[in-house]
Specification:
Strand content: 35-45%
Structural class: alpha+beta
Number of helices: 3
Number of strands: 9
Mean pLDDT: 84
Helix content: 25-40%
Low-confidence stretches: 5-18
Shape: globular
């Protein structure tokens, strides 16, 4: 009888949907796993590195991040969540694809802000970071006026 009861409880537990993380928990997850971590990546015959210095997001608003390369260049990026059209990764690089002319990038110390179509940063465990980013963007919902 105990075996049957245990099997029913286990089966019921498997059929329940996973508890979805809140917006703030998802932002914290990305911050904890990506911010402050230096990731090396190959670029031709050289090995470069990049560190995500800051990551923040506003529910229904924008994603903002700051990253630094091994040369010391710091760049800031921002994009509205409604303008994110895809998120992917290649090795340890997280790529946020955006609508044309919707994202902004700026070299810190420079006086120019440029329009960019892709925002990227590096993170250990990129598959998990991509899933977290997708979940984060899903909070924006569908914007009926986006197209």
């Amino acid at each position: 009888m105990r075996r049957i009861l245990f099997a029913l409880v286990a089966l019921a537990g498997l059929s329940l949907p996973a508890f979805a993380q809140s917006f703030d928990e998802t932002v914290s997850y990305i911050q904890d796993r990506c911010v402050g971590h230096t990731v090396e990546y190959p670029m031709g015959s050289r090995t470069l590195s990049s560190t995500l210095l800051a990551f923040n997001a506003e529910e229904g608003g924008s994603i903002e991040l700051t990253r630094m390369s091994n040369e010391g260049n710091r760049r800031e990026y921002s994009v509205s969540m409604f303008d994110v059209v895809g998120i992917s990764n290649y090795r340890n690089e997280i790529i946020i694809e955006t609508r044309p002319d919707s994202a902004r990038g700026r070299l810190i110390g420079g006086n120019r802000t440029n329009s960019v179509t892709d925002i990227y940063f590096f993170c250990p465990n990129p598959d998990r970071a991509v899933r977290a980013m997708e979940h984060l963007v899903s909070f924006a919902g569908d914007d009926p006026f986006a197209n």
